[in-house]
Amino acid sequence: MTESATQNASVDLYQYLCSIAGTEEHVKTIRFMNTIRDNLSSDTNFVEITSGSFGEGLEMQGSDFDLMKIIKSIEICENPNIPFFSDKTYFAIDRDDTQPGFTQLRLLYSNDEAIFDLCIERQRELFFSSSAFKPQFSSNILPIVHGPCLSDKQGLFDLALCCHSKSWITPATQWITRSNNSWPDEVVKQYIVEHGTLFVPIGVKGSTNEEVEWRISFSVGEKFLIYTFTHTQILCYALLKILLKDVIQMKLECEELLCSYFMKTILFWISEEYPPSVWRPENLICNFMRCFRRLIYCVENSVCPHYFIPDNNLFENKIKGREKQILLNRLYVLNSCNWQCVLFSHQLSHFRREVLLSPIEPTFLHIYEIEKFLFSMINVKMTIVQLWKFLLLDCVIFYPNSTLIPHELQIEVMSNIRRIPPLVYAHFLLVLCHHRLNNVHLCRDSLQDLNLTIEENYLIPQPMGKFFSYEILGIAFQLTGDIESAKSAFIQSIALEPNTAKNNSLWRLSSMCSRFL
């Protein structure tokens, strides 16, 4: 696409995302309501803070409700030489033998006997146990311990009980003076510093001190930073979350590798590195791709520095080995689609029908020409099946008696030339490969991708491409043993093209039915 075409698409996408994530006024209204709710809910024991996407002003599809409660009776301090009040408990920060971004909390003073029961003695000192702390607040409503939070059984609500330090923590002091392109400005930085730091009850997984470690949290500061975003930045953030949830995590093996916090961290770094003037609606696509390609770079190098404490690598011991390669392969394929990779999201289904792409001549390639191209690209770290997605084709043509046709499709091409939508064929090949390798979960994921592609009419020419796509879907279901879904797919194919000279679905359906008589 030309620069002007990309800018026009950016403006269209900006307007469409306003209907999904909210207009600028809608976002401001949600934030205002959250502020009122937090003020009314806070009392002498707790300060409540609405966090997560909703706390930031976004109403994202599928998001849960996140709430933080700060315990007023506990105070964390780096300087132990401060006056103590008898109605409070004081812990000192002890970062010895902890990874960056985490700390232990050593008891300094308390009149509350319950606190002593939540501490573990080590080398004649008492340390606050993060693992013992969380169950104290569980209930019938929130019975599940989920990371640092308590959650309901439906996964709709997360509550994080946390402790507060009125002072800005030493490991994050470099953030205050770090050079940048005027974002965030000095007033915002000072405001964030004055609100101090939070500590949430979770340690480094596998650490010898895990049960007494606490993660240093900057949730309040991060919320203030997002409040300074232009609406273009907000929608870029929403687009990154959509890409993660609806596209990247659709693959089972990628589901737990990335989280929205990584996306937010990358957006913070990009925002700091580029002047605020770049965040205009016509630059939405350009800035989104900057963030996406930074994500790929971070995964490639297994490094994602925490925004406030860069020494804390968020990818430390998390994305490695085979899982890393699977994730990278998925990111590479999506990157090859440029910004249009987001169109795989069901949330953008209407937009992808309306978006005007730069006109191109119809492309028809014989299957042997495609295979030649794929083998020329074999030096990439990617599989041949994944490389199919690089091709911008209107259809793949199969001729009768071709030796390159999978035997599962031989009947379909016995006497007629078949034109197969390339994305449908790519997904079918994935189903076929995983089925033959007995990769049950991956086969199921690929079958879901195939089904979604057909249901959403993504890159499928009408009408021939649609009926043959349903026929291929029926064959895929039949291969995996899902007979009822196979029948349904064949019936849909027949409804679109009842001519048995063109469509073998009726023959396949009859064969299935007679087999069970």
Overview of the structural elements:
By secondary structure, the chain is α+β, with helices and mostly antiparallel strands. The chain has two domains: 3-336, Poly(a)-polymerase, middle domain; 363-515, Serine Threonine Protein Phosphatase 5, Tetratricopeptide repeat, CATH 1.25.40. Helices cover 44% and strands 15% of the residues. The protein contains 20 helices and 14 strands. A six-stranded mixed beta barrel has the order 2-3-4-11-10-9. Strands 12-13-14 form a three-stranded mixed sheet. Strand 8 and strand 9 form a beta hairpin. Helix 10 packs across helix 11 (284-301) and helix 18 packs antiparallel against helix 19 (483-496). The protein starts with a helix and ends with a helix.
Q: What's a concise summary of this model?
A:
This protein has 20 helices and 14 strands. By secondary structure, the protein is α+β, with helices and mostly antiparallel strands.
